[in-house]
Each structure stands twice: as structure tokens, then as C-alpha cells.
Amino acid sequence: MPIVDCPPSDADTDFVLEARELVFEYVPGTPVLDGWSAGFPSGSMTALTGPSGRGKSTVLYLLGLMLRPTIGEVLVDGIPVSTLRDATRARLRAEQFGFVFQDAALDTTRTVLDNVTETALYRGEPRNKARALELLDQLGVKVPPHRKPGQVSGGQAQRIALSRALLNRPRVLLADEPTGNLDPTTSTLVVNTLREHARSGAAVIVVTHAPDVAAICDREVRL
């Protein structure tokens, strides 16, 4: 597995997602990132690794267009998108991105099935309940779809969140510690599902502290 520590070359044109010279500050004058660059090709699963506090989750939020870099650019298909209007970035996220948050981030007022299908609303599409149920079954979520998130385990919630992220077959899937709440067997199931999605042609980027998860990925980018 190649470990990528350097910026992508200008000659590289096959990245579906790219970060160029990103600087990000939560507090002015105290950068979390200082000139960070990396490229992510389609059909590949990349592990984003490094010590705690190095900004891995922040990178994921920047790549997912939920934060704007202080300096630098995020590009999709070679087109800068960081400075687009909020509504335009939100539409791009809904159409092309899937995101698995570290804490699952499910809506506790809605059912499991509604949590999975809600992303369709942001794209102006009908809810694809059949695919949602197929994904839940594939990921071993053996709970009635009308249950609320407060009635499922943490591991089940994480797999529900992954089902939500996969619903629209996103070109880019970003996952923040997707195996953190899972036992080894379920962790393997989730990682294999992510790999399968990458093999379908997507760029999959996984923040992880787990060496076994990083080892399964095609590439590793260290912060």
C-alpha cells in the first residue's frame, strides 16, 4: 500500500477530489492545517491517518465542503469549489458526496428508514426505500425500520449512517472513524462495503486510527 506524504503533481489529472495548499484556522493565527495538499483518485480507498489532534476530521469537513479553507482550494474534477456560494456547495454535496460522521449524526425524531432516505430530499429525488432496506440488510442492521435511533445500539447507528451515505451511490464517500463502535466481525463487513463502493468507481476516504483498517486501504495519506 503506497503512503502518500507529498502534494500531488500538476500533471495528475485523474483526481475526482483534490486539496491544494489548504490552510485552516479555527483561531486566527493558529493554523490546524498549514499548506496541506493531497489528491484522491476514483476507484480507490484512501486511509487518512495520523496522531490525534492533527486535524484529520477537519480535513474531512474541508474535503466535504462543510468548512471553507482559510487559504487554498478544494477541487472536484479539477474545478475549484471551495469559494462557491453555500447553496451551490450544498447542492454539490447532496449530488456527489456521502458522509459518515464519527457520531453517526442521526435525527433522533425520525425513523431508521427515514434517516437513510432523507438525503434524497436534498437532491429533489423520491425516497428510494427499496435500496435503503437493501443497504440496511447488507450491513446487518437487524432492527425494524420504524424504530427511532434512540432504540438502536451505537454500532447499528453507525451502519445506519453508512447506509444513508451510500444511498445515492456517491462519487465521493468520506467516513470519519466508521469502525470505531464496531466489533471485529462487523468492522470487517463495513470495511468490505467501503472497498466495494470504491471498486465501483468512487473515491473513498476513511479517517482511521486502526492499523488493520488502514492496511486494507489502497493508499494511506498521513497528517
Structure summary:
With about 220 residues, this protein is of the alpha/beta class.
Q: Please summarize the sheet with the most strands.
A: 6 strands, parallel
For the record, give the distance between the C-alpha atoms at the N and C termini, rounded to a whole number: 16 Å
Structural class: alpha/beta
Strand percentage lies at 25-35%
Oligomer: single chain
- The CATH class assignment is Alpha Beta
CATH topology: Rossmann fold
Give the topology, please:
Layout: E1 3-4, E2 15-27, E3 30-41, E4 44-49, H1 56-63, E5 71-76, E6 79-80, H2 86-96, E7 97-100, H3 112-117, H4 119-122, H5 129-138, H6 154-166, E8 172-176, H7 184-199, E9 203-207, H8 211-216, E10 219-222
Parallel strand pairs: 1-10, 4-9, 4-10, 7-8, 8-9
Antiparallel strand pairs: 2-3, 2-5, 5-6
Can you characterise this structure?
By secondary structure, the protein is of the alpha/beta class. It has one domain: Rossmann fold (3-Layer(aba) Sandwich), CATH 3.40.50. 33% of the residues lie in helices and 26% in strands. The protein contains eight helices and ten strands. Strands 1-10-4-9-8-7 form a six-stranded parallel sheet. Strands 3-2-5-6 form a four-stranded antiparallel sheet, with helices on one face. β8 (172-176), α7 (184-199) and β9 form a beta-alpha-beta unit. The two termini are 16 Å apart. The relative contact order is 0.21. Mean pLDDT is 89; it is low at 5-12.
